[in-house]
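Methods — Computational structure assignment.
A single polypeptide chain was analysed. Its primary sequence is given first, followed by the predicted tertiary structure written as structure tokens.
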Amino acid sequence: MATIRDIAKKAGVSPATVSRVLNNDLTLSVTDETRIKIIKTADALNYSKVNRRIQKRVALIQWYSQSKEQDDLYYMMIREGIEKRSQLYNFEIVRIFQNDLNEIEGDIDAIIAVGKFSNEQVKHMSQVSPKIVFIDDNQFMNGYDSVLSDFKTGVTQVIDFFIKQDLQDIGIIYGEEHSTDGLRVIPDQRFDYFKQYLSNNNLFQEKYCFKGDFTKKSGYQQMRSAINKLDKLPSAFFVTNDPMAAGTLQALQEAGISVPGQVQVFSFNNTSVANYVNPELSAVSVEMEEMGRCSVDILNDLLNNDKHVPFKLELATKLVFRDSTKK
């Protein structure tokens, strides 16, 4: 009969690592590939103690449409992280767009909800399954696991970058959204942090703030509005997602305004869009795939640990500098 040592030898890892993986120790720092290799090796050797979990059906509820996901790669990257990590736990992922719970067929063991949801929508989801992990929506106060990004630090670092250049005029193009049932208005937290931090430094100017809806078209329209309304554009703009930043660059280019010579642009999220525009966008990098992976790890604990305590997990961001800002 195969032993832990047999599995370790064939998988090329230590017996301790094999033991911890087979016992679902999520504190162990190993790659997904190593975890999967150990589990497959244990199966191949017919190891009797391997945890042969019954496949769980997990509804991936997305608040946006399939076409919207193609427009904003932020959500696509989160989904890819979820799907890759789910293979490790043998989860079957059932994709639901625009919070349409009527599309769910059969029993659901748990839910990963990506986006922003009203109280009514959360209540409706909990009737399908009370085991829910939210991504990009802080439902921690309501007793649910929540995976978020550290907006505050990212915004603060961008402003500090501009302040160190002695810039006194910093603008923002940001967004506002609504839950799909229209019952919840979702303000842009990045704008709140932007306003607070600049106000603390006596630099906030309302006239430099333009609100859109997170689309490229909106970014273009808001920058056109800024060009038309202001006697002089601010020296820098912080734009709170990549599609809007791409629209912002288009409007500036059409107006013959050089970037970063006359106006610097700093984006948020750092999807592949940031690399494919001209000039390439400096951006606050969000670990989108990691958000998806972490949500699945938390969900696995929620499903298997009777003593599970809700998490509020906030992932760090970092600044990535490209050609849309001055070096």
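Note: Residues 4-44 form one domain.
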